[in-house]
From TrEMBL:
Cofactor: Zn(2+)
Gene3D superfamilies in UniProt: 3.30.1380.10
Keywords assigned by UniProt, alphabetized: Cell wall biogenesis/degradation, Hydrolase, Metal-binding, Metalloprotease, Protease, Signal, Zinc
UniProt source species: Microbulbifer epialgicus
Name of the molecule in the record: Murein endopeptidase K
Family recorded in the similarity comment: Belongs to the peptidase M15 family.
Length: 177
């Protein structure tokens, strides 16, 4: 029979190693996570907390959903809250105090089809149509560094568009292009 204290030691050691290797975590429960964004197509700006008192804030999320709406169809969807976590982690990584610029958030299926037909390099099953993607930039942060930081998160897809000056982030499977 194995020594129970040895098993406990190994279990605690493995759990501690897993927690440390998971990387930086968010502040304690009860803290707030605020983002400052501007939709480049509509000119609208928003600074709001999407997370307060240990949970996602429905009011803050609704405001961001509206900001990230399909401006062509004026259609709003529920954006994946984990998407805001990705952007927040990127903001924190660079200690970024400026306004995050949104090139694209939600796109309706109809808008996506129109952009695809126009040959704009739009994916047929884009995560934008599911409220799971954003195209962003942080003025003052080199795009290549933003891309690298997004890849390091291993939190979803990362697309790099240096000619158009933005990075795509989504909450789909981890992949890159």
């Amino acid at each position: 029979m194995k020594n129970p204290s040895r098993r406990r030691f190994l279990a605690v050691t493995c759990a501690t190693a897993a927690a440390v290797s998971a990387g930086p975590t968010f502040a304690k429960v009860g803290s707030s996570r605020t983002l400052k964004m501007r939709n480049l197509h509509t000119g609208e700006k928003l600074e709001a907390a999407y997370w307060t008192n240990g949970d996602y804030s429905s009011g803050g999320l609704k405001q961001f959903n509206k900001l990230l709406r399909d401006h062509r169809a004026n259609e709003v969807t529920r954006m994946d809250p984990k998407l805001f976590d990705i952007v927040y982690k990127l903001k924190e990584k660079f200690n970024y105090k400026g306004t995050i610029e949104i090139i694209s958030g939600y796109r309706s299926a109809k808008t996506n089809a129109k952009l695809r037909a126009a040959g704009r390099g739009v994916a047929k099953r884009s995560y934008h149509t599911r409220g799971m993607a954003m195209d962003i930039r942080m003025p003052g942060v080199p795009l290549s560094k933003l891309r690298r930081a997004a890849l390091d998160l291993k939190a979803g897809g990362v697309g790099y568009y240096p000619k158009s000056n933005f990075v795509h982030v989504d909450t789909g499977p981890v992949r890159r292009w």
